[in-house]
Here is the input.
Amino acid sequence: MEAPYLNTPPPPEELGAMTRANIEAALAGESQASQKYLAFAAVAREEGYPNVARLFEAVAYAESTHARNHLSVLGQIGTTAQNLKAAWGGETFEIDEMYPAYAAVAKLQGNESAQLTIRFALKAEMDHQEIYDSTLKGVEGKKDFDESVVYVCPVCGHTVIGKRPGYCSQCYTDGSYFREF
Here is the structure.
């Protein structure tokens, strides 16, 4: 196939069952690699290797690009309203099924750090679900997201709209560490 995409990802197409499974697996792998490399970049930067950090960030961006292309081919990128509904659905699955099951296993096996990271994620997913729900209502009414600032706790992922909190209500990290978006 030629490369007529100039500034756009490859378009969705009907996929054979094995190809779909392979692209879905590749999406998961590329997504994980991107996040892993961003974590590696943070460590490199903290250890005084800013150029190594920059390299990891560049490759993380490339891996994210691969993931976006795979999402496109799978037909999983829609309109803003469709994407908000899909994101809400993903959060719902994590809240109702995935994290409760993972938490039960971690508790059964006595893995305290795993229980903590699962609890952090579950609470943050609840934040996200609520934010997506209210944002979707605005988009369906042809209104953009409120121009408020979004703050995210760098330890647990707790997400707050509007005013930076004094501390994280989930993990008690000082609010000055929250990342602003």
Q: What stands out?
A: Residues 17-73 form a domain with the Ferritin fold (CATH 1.20.1260.10). Helices lie at 17-46, 50-73, 80-108, 112-140.
